[in-house]
């Protein structure tokens, strides 16, 4: 096993992803591991990068920077299933079972069993292109489950399933985890799989934070070290820029209060000040320290709050 994995089946290290050179970073500085036998929820507002993160975890996309260590046997249910493939439902599942390394007989048996479990046995001989959306989603889920993956990645996999099939997927996830597999999922229902999730990560800005039980979040990559609080005001209607190293983020009516790891304060300030249009940095402070010593950021090229500043400040930019 890769020594960098530190016991995880897969680990992201300094991972960043953007879709165009010079374009905005969807994810930046992301680092966390996925443990065997754990159920992991990923959450975040629309368009923040949840699917991007899942594709990186599933290995069907590669980071622009950083690395993904480890590649367990992985199966993935995408947000949109490519239903136009030239197979019947059973033919497709058998084919996928073979791709995942099952012998022909085992793949055929698995295909039958999973279609049965999801109440879609009568569609075994139906071409994928003729399946209803719900039946097509059952096939999408079955293809991921049939080879017993070590890492199962589910992007809104419950969407489109009927109640019985949703319950069956809940059971299949519990079986995978009990069997030592890791399952990572995104779902719009905050009550999906209640009480069984081991860890929740929230995509906030371009960072991925650990969501703690009290509902706050802290940077999954940041150490427990010192932090800096940045208050900024956005131009009317501006989207929150991607800011690395965010531990917690609160925004209201264009006002943003970020706690960032002190190690990331320079880069966080730069991200705000060089956003297009730029954000107005209202104050920078070190929690728990006396006012007075954090240097003010310049408006374009910030020297930034000194991460290790022994005292604090409320500093206005100019
Ligand atoms: N293949 C791609 N090419 C270019 N931009 C992309 C691509 N995939 C995603 N994006 C952009 O990356 C950002 C994050 O998208 P992503 O789908 O990962 O977010 P999400 O949190 O899963 O969204 P949703 O909640 O709507 O499913 C969006 O701005 C999106 O437009």
From TrEMBL:
Keywords: ATP-binding, Nucleotide-binding, Transport. Signal peptide: none annotated. Residues 10-230 form the ABC transporter domain. One of its GO terms (molecular function) is ATP binding. Residues 285-318 are annotated as: Disordered. SMART domains: AAA. InterPro entries: AAA+_ATPase, ABC_transporter-like_ATP-bd, ABC_Transporter_VariousFunc, P-loop_NTPase. It comes from the Bacteria. It holds the Pfam family ABC_tran. This is ATP-binding cassette domain-containing protein. The lineage of its organism: Bacteria, Bacillati, Actinomycetota, Actinomycetes, Kitasatosporales.
């Amino acid at each position: 096993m890769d020594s960098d994995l530190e016991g995880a089946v897969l680990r992201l290290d300094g991972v960043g992803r953007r879709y165009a050179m010079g374009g905005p970073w969807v994810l930046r500085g992301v680092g966390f591991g996925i443990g065997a036998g754990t159920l992991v929820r990923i959450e975040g507002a629309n368009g923040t990068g949840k699917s991007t993160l899942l594709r990186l975890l599933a290995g069907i996309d590669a980071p622009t920077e950083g690395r993904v260590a480890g590649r367990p046997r992985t199966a993935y249910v995408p947000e949109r299933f490519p239903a136009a493939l030239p197979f019947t439902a059973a033919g497709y599942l058998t084919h996928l079972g073979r791709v995942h390394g099952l012998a022909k007989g085992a793949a055929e048996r698995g295909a039958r069993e999973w279609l049965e479990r999801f109440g879609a046995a009568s569609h075994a001989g139906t071409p994928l292109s003729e399946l209803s959306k719900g039946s097509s989603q059952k096939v999408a889920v079955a293809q991921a489950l049939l080879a017993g993956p070590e890492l199962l990645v589910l992007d809104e996999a419950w969407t489109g399933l009927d109640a019985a099939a949703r319950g069956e997927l809940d059971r299949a996830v519990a079986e995978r985890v009990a069997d030592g597999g890791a399952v990572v999922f995104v779902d719009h229902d905050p009550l999906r799989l209640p009480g069984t999730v081991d860890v929740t990560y929230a995509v906030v800005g371009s960072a991925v934070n650990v969501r703690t039980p009290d509902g706050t979040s802290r940077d999954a990559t940041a150490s427990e070290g010192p932090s800096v609080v940045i208050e900024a005001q956005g131009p009317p209607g501006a989207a929150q820029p991607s800011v690395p190293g965010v531990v917690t983020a609160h925004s209201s009516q264009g006002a943003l209060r970020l706690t960032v790891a002190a190690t990331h304060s320079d880069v966080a300030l730069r991200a705000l000040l060089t956003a297009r249009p730029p954000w107005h940095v209202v104050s920078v402070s070190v929690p728990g320290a006396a006012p007075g010593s954090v240097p003010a950021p310049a408006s374009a090229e910030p020297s930034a709050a000194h991460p290790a500043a022994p005292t604090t400040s409320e500093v206005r930019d100019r």
